Amino acid sequence: MFKENTTMMMDSNPPLFDQYEFLLQSTAHLQPFNNGNLPTNSVMEECQLPLIDLKGLKSSDEKERVACRREIFEASEEWGFFQVINHGIHTELLNRMNKEQIKLFGVPFEKKFTSGILDNSYRWGTPTATHPNQFSWSEAFHIPLTKVSEAACYGDFIYLREVMEEVASAMSKVARKLAGVLVESMGQRKELLEDICDESTCFLRLNHYPICPFSGEVSGLVPHTDSDFLTILHQDSGGGLQVMKGSQWLAVKPNPQALVVNIGDLLQAWSNDTYKSAKHRVVANPMRERYSIAYFLCPSYHSQIGSCREPSPYRHFTFAEYRKQVRDDVEKTGYKIGLSNFRL
């Protein structure tokens, strides 16, 4: 019965069922099916990430400014994840973005896949997966900031262009503000970010997680860390985001008023491991679909990712080197290895 319903939905949803079923069949002779990435029953509890009120950064009271900055430092050290309120992005704008996102993902799959919309940035499933536990039950558009304002990228989606320009600008401001606070805590000039961060390598990612019949066995998005300085995420009320703290997966309780912020690999390296790029994942859902939008703050490809002080546990490398190593590792092993490749 599900297969029939899935076929009916293929009009807009990518053929995730078929790709995943093929992976199951092609690996059945290797070992019994078992997804080591998704022991969902091992999630101990739903957690509330550290919640930080950013109005403290603008307070006229120096003690309040210092206290707010300290909260950001401590959350970045202990969790690598936190949520922020009073971030300056209006709920009405985020709601408009969500409505346009639903319209976009609702168009026929073939149009999303072949029309070149949003700079031909559409991706679905996991083309590099060689085992079911490497497969993500999701689809996404991953758009460079330099393309967000180009009318030719949008076709008939004229209202999407307007709201995406606003969201990109607003999320960029939040990301740079928070990254600047963290950079200053390392004894660096916050203006350094303006020197090395490049709109051509910063991205917006629109995510859609369709209903999944294998929700206890497959990820909406496989466990990973982010290969950037800082990520800003707005998620809907559906939940599904989980963060690893220590050796335990914790389910992040959605907060409609907050943005989720997480440290990326590059800031962990720059801070000599003071700030943590925490592993996270999205759990698939058998009952409802989920939408989110993420902004990734990245440096230019030639930028050297150094250290806030010497000695550093990492050799110096460029963002281009890091991206290439990640791609090579995924192609060879199915997984991102990340910073451990660059340790001295």
Folded structure, characterized:
This protein has an eight-stranded mixed β-sheet. By secondary structure, the chain is α+β, with helices and mostly antiparallel strands. The chain has helices at 2-9, 16-27, 62-78, 91-105, 109-114, 117-120, 158-185, 191-196, 265-270, 319-333, and strands at residues 46-47, 51-53, 81-85, 122-124, 139-144, 203-209, 219-224, 230-235, 241-245, 248-252, 259-263, 280-283, 290-297, 304-305, 317-318. The longest helix is centred in the middle third of the chain and has 28 residues, at 158-185. Helix 4 (91-105) crosses helix 7 (158-185). 38% of the residues are buried. The protein starts with a helix and ends in an 11-residue tail after the last helix. Residues 1-9 and 32-36 have low confidence and may be disordered. Helix content is 34%, strand content 20%. The protein contains ten helices and 15 strands. The chain has a single domain (2-14, 42-297), classed as Jelly Rolls (Sandwich). Keywords: Iron, Metal-binding, Oxidoreductase. InterPro entries: DIOX_N, IPNS-like_FE2OG_OXY, IPNS-like_sf, Iron_ascorbate_oxido_reductase, Oxoglu/Fe-dep_dioxygenase_dom. One of its GO terms (molecular function) is 2-oxoglutarate-dependent dioxygenase activity. Pfam families: 2OG-FeII_Oxy, DIOX_N. This is Fe2OG dioxygenase domain-containing protein.
